[in-house]
Amino acid sequence: MSSTAKPRRGRARARQNTVTAAFDRAWRQWRNPYPPVEQFRPDEVEAIHKTSLRVLSDIGLKVLDDDARRLLVKAGMTEAGDQVIRFDPDLVMELLGHAPREVTLHGRGPDRDVSLGGNKVAICTTGGTPNFSDIKGGRRPGTLADLDNLCRVAQGFDVIHVIGPFVEAQDIPPNLRHFAMTRSVLTLTDKVPFVFFRGAQAVADAYEMIRLAHGLSEEEFRQTPVCYGVANSNSPLQLDHLMCRGIIDAARAGQLMVLTPFTLSGAMAPVTLPGALAQQNAEAMAGIALSQIARPGAPVCYGSFTTNVDMKTGSPAFGTPEYTKAAFASGQLARFYGLPLRSSGVTASNTVDAQAAYEHQMSLWGALMGGTNLLLHGAGWLEGGLTASAEKFIVDVEQLQMFAELFKPVEVNEATLGFDAMQEVGHGGHFFGTQHTLERFETAFYSPLVSDWSNYENWAERGAEDTQTRAHRIFFETVEAHEPPPLAPERLEEIDDFIARRTADGGADIDR
Question: Hey, which residues does 121 pair with through a beta bridge?
């Protein structure tokens, strides 16, 4: 693992936080070696599938965008009035068959490509939060400076592969915000960036900046997935104008589109898990079908976000048993259609406490052991997605590093079986000083980032830092140690010239 944080206290910390030319390739492209957990029997998955097709054909989806409705009808769907489209089941399945089973996202830096599909996994930061928090500054509206710091920290850890929109830069006007946020991601990281679906102009602007950063021709850009965006259906059973535009624009640009219904059981979807999944599945299939009409073979990802709500308040609940079961089942559905799967690492906790840790861990188990290929909100998510937290980011990275190590293969051979070491130690004694141990001292076990494995006396002597205090320190040490990845000066000049021209034009109309 390579991180930009400065080394502190001992070899384990130095190993964890020192920049090195070498890095752990298993951390930069995860491969999940475990068979995915299956929530339902094959016949039950088939029943959910058939119910979803029945929803699409008999109830349909309300499609609020005129161009999207025209595309759907021209392809063979039926307009049922009041902007409702009814979908032909056979045509839906034919369209889903055009979508690729695996997608490779190309990062700007060397060894930053990540593939999605099969057992390949990529981890994304949190995104879309209006607020930022840390234990010294408290919770406050997000700024561009907060986004910059989150980008710097995300660049420092190899278990982060994909950059989310992190936090809203609310100190930048909405019509210009996408310029500043995209520029930050492109200059402070060399990992795969995110594009908000906030209207055709804003999407086109972001795509152009990313194209310039990669030095691609327009045709090369259309043939090379280098970024991604998320289209959320407006559950229940609706696609709004901006999401339709994003689906179509991403497909035509050849960039990854993640179709994610926001199906909350009992609120925006049936209260039963099979019912919520049938609705999620119908909405996902409809959006993916639209993308394949816009451009057959366009890269897509099946998005899962089904969870329950607190029925006393209506608030979303995350990291619950229901969320985990839905994640397992969503993996089965994505594999049923041969599509990459997106899930999330989420919590409803309002602070970095035990609830935040165990809900995030439950979310990770549901997502990763359910077979997800793209984990969104992997680090930093707090307060049900309303806040990006500095300390939570580091605590989450710790958990992600543990999964990265869990997924690494363990070789069984003469050297690892350790017979010579056992023979050397014999009966009684210890293995600390054996050659077998010394040769593997720094690589034998996972070395903690935030966790403190020392005894109480040593911990107290060092100042008795708790988890949040250590995480806060590591976050801002990593910010200070950040070195921007290389970006050719002429490419940056092209990007800045483009921003200047578009700013002079008034920026983007984010309502269309």
Answer: 30
* Mean pLDDT within 371-396: 97
Q: Using CB atoms within 10 A of its CB, is residue 29 exposed (0-12), middle (13-18) or buried (19+)?
A: middle
Retrieve residue 425's tokens.
């130690």
Q: Which of 242, 319, 330, 239 is nearest to 281 (CA)?
A: 330
Q: What is the pTM of this model?
A: 0.94
Report the Cα 1 to chain-centroid distance in Å: 19
The Cα–Cα gap between 8 and 1 comes to 16
Q: Which residue ranges make up each domain of the chain? A: 1-23+47-134+142-301+385-398+448-512, 409-440
270/462 Cα distance (integer angstroms): 52
CA 86, CA 72: separation in Å to the nearest integer?
Answer: 9
- Please tell me what DSSP assigns to residue 327: H
Query: Residue 451: pLDDT above 70?
Result: yes
What's the one-letter identity of residue 451?
Answer: S
Q: Is 500 left (phi over 0), alpha (psi -120 to 50) or beta?
A: alpha
Whole-number Cα distances in Å, 415 to 25, 272, 427, 472: 22, 52, 20, 40
How confident is the model at residue 461, as a pLDDT?
87
The candidate with the shortest Cα–Cα distance to 195, out of 247, 131, 122, is 247
Please calculate the CA angle 181-182-185 and round it to the nearest 5 degrees.
90
Q: Tell me: domain 1-23+47-134+142-301+385-398+448-512, CATH 3.40.50.2000, correct?
A: no
